[in-house]
Structure formats: structure tokens, C-alpha cells
Amino acid sequence: MKLEFTKMQGIGNDFVVLDGRRQSLQLDSDCLQQIADRRFGVGCDQILVLEKSNLPDVDVRYRIFNADGSEVEQCGNGARCIARYLHSNGLEHKTEIVAETAAGPITLYIELDDLVRVNMGVPRFAPADIPLAVAEQADSYNLSLEQGEFPFRAVSMGNPHAVLESGDVDTVPISVIAPMIQAHPLFPAGINVGFMQIEDREHIRLRVYERGAGETLACGSGACAAVVCGISAGLLDDCVNVDLPGGRLQIQWAGDDNPVWMTGPAEFVFQGTLELQT
Ligand SMILES: N[C@H](CCC[C@H](N)C(=O)O)C(=O)O
């Protein structure tokens, strides 16, 4: 099966964009994993599949698949890349784009400085919304692992996140600790694990070990989750620069039932045709 694709990246979190409005796509988990494979396929952290939306006032519907083939509800860096893709493929006249996702509609804004600003929706802390297998909601939780005690905060940005505060994030043994956290029965739907180093009230450093993809150079929803947890803990102000290994995002949240705003870049890398072995 031949697939036309566009490779894009948002501060190093990379995507294969497949436009299902222009080609017929029948992709099972094996196909998705092959596309994402960095040796046998194109290589990416997530695959973004565009579809026609039947909803009024909605420009497009898109679905998000991790490199392991799992379908997920939200992808912040991917949302910015979708906005960039659409703004260069038929929606050149629009600077405000509405996309339907599994997490609901999100609005994407092409800014004058060519960055993309996304309304990432309202964070949710209720255990049932994350999901988190605890009896009752708390400000923070604790995980006991062989390697020690790991206090964390949990929030849904449409997808599930655990946020741990750390000293120097560069020294966190993330590829050892994060998979053990992800495997814990506390997280029945899996979890994205963020390690946050607070530099000051307007600046954090962050590394994220993603559900279904492993450590990525950046995680947009993870940056939102970390800032929301930091603000909720009284440690951050309402506008924060988040430095991830792949680059910087600006995250804003006014608290309570206000939405989280994420601003950052989105770039094209190349286009191509993939011969999928089916
Ligand atoms: N791994 C995530 C999806 C991609 C999120 C990330 N790439 C972002 O920019 O938000 C999950 O399983 O929920």
C-alpha cells in the first residue's frame, strides 16, 4: 500500500501526518508501528491522521496514534503541526482553525510571529477523569517502588499525566523509573510521566517519558500538565516558559475552570511516499 505523508515536528516531537481526506487509509496497529519505525518506516513519535469532520464550524477531524499503535486523546505538539499543515494546505486564509479530536474540539491560532497558539482545554483532576485508581482525589499521591518513594501530582489534559518534581532533570534515570511508574496498577490506562525542575516561578525544565512512545524531545500536553500541577501547588505563576530537551513552549493557565494555553513552533521537515509492507 502506497501512502503519501508529510513529516513534521514541534520542538523535536516528530510526527507523520497522513491526510485521509486525500487518500484512502486502512491502518491497523501493525501498519502504524511500521510507519513509526525509525528503521523500517518513516520514523516518528506519533502519527496524525486527518479526516473530514461532519460537525458544523469544524475545519477538520484528526486522530492521534502513538508509535506503538495505540490511539490517544490529545497531543499538544501535534495540534500545532496540524494547524501549520492546514494553514499551508487549503486554509491559507484562516488564522483560527477548529479541529475535532477524541478529547473534543480544540481551537488553533496561527500567530503573527508564525508560532501556533492552542487552547488545550480545561485540566481535570478527578481520578475518574485521568484515570487514576485511587479511592479519593488528593492534591498529590505517592508511589512506592523498589527505587524508593515517588510523590507525584496527576492531571488529565485529555490524556493522562503524572508530574514529579525533581532536582536536576538531566540526572533523572528516566528510562528506568518512568516505565516502572507506567506499569503501576494506579494507572489503568497508562500514563505520561513528566519530571519537572522548577527554576523560578516563570520557568521550568521538563523531561517527559510518554505513554506509547518513550522519552520524547518534547511533549506539549506534558508541558501543560507540569505547569498546571506547579500552579496548583502554588509554585508557579500563571505564565511559564517550559524548556524541554527539544525547545521551549509558553504555557498559560489562569486556574480553576480556565483553559490552558500553549504557544510554540511547528515545522515541516519533508514529504514523501511510503511503500507499506502489508
Ligand atoms: N503519548 C501521549 C500522546 C502524545 C502527546 C505528546 N506528544 C504531546 O505533544 O502532547 C499519550 O499517550 O497520551
Automatic annotation (TrEMBL):
Superkingdom classification of source: Bacteria
Pfam families assigned to the protein according to its UniProt record, in alphabetical order: DAP_epimerase (PF01678)
The name this protein goes by in its record: Diaminopimelate epimerase
Involved pathway(s): Amino-acid biosynthesis; L-lysine biosynthesis via DAP pathway; DL-2,6-diaminopimelate from LL-2,6-diaminopimelate: step 1/1
Residues flagged as site, Important for dimerization: F270
Quaternary context: Homodimer.
Function according to Swiss-Prot or TrEMBL: Catalyzes the stereoinversion of LL-2,6-diaminopimelate (L,L-DAP) to meso-diaminopimelate (meso-DAP), a precursor of L-lysine and an essential component of the bacterial peptidoglycan.
Listed EC numbers: 5.1.1.7
Keyword DNA damage: no
Keywords tagged on the record: Amino-acid biosynthesis, Cytoplasm, Isomerase, Lysine biosynthesis
Residues engaged in binding substrate: N13, Q46, N66, G76, N77, N159, N192, E210, R211, G220, S221
Main location group: cytoplasm
Classification via PROSITE patterns: DAP_EPIMERASE
InterPro entries registered for this protein in UniProt: DAP_epimerase_AS, DAP_epimerase_DapF
GO cellular component: cytosol
MF annotations from Gene Ontology: diaminopimelate epimerase activity
Protein family according to the UniProt entry: Belongs to the diaminopimelate epimerase family.
Entry annotation: catalytic residues: C75, C219
The reaction(s) this protein catalyses: (2S,6S)-2,6-diaminopimelate = meso-2,6-diaminopimelate
GO biological process: lysine biosynthetic process via diaminopimelate
Subcellular location as annotated: Cytoplasm
Marked site positions, Could be important to modulate the pK values of the two catalytic cysteine residues: H161, E210
Coiled coil start-end: none
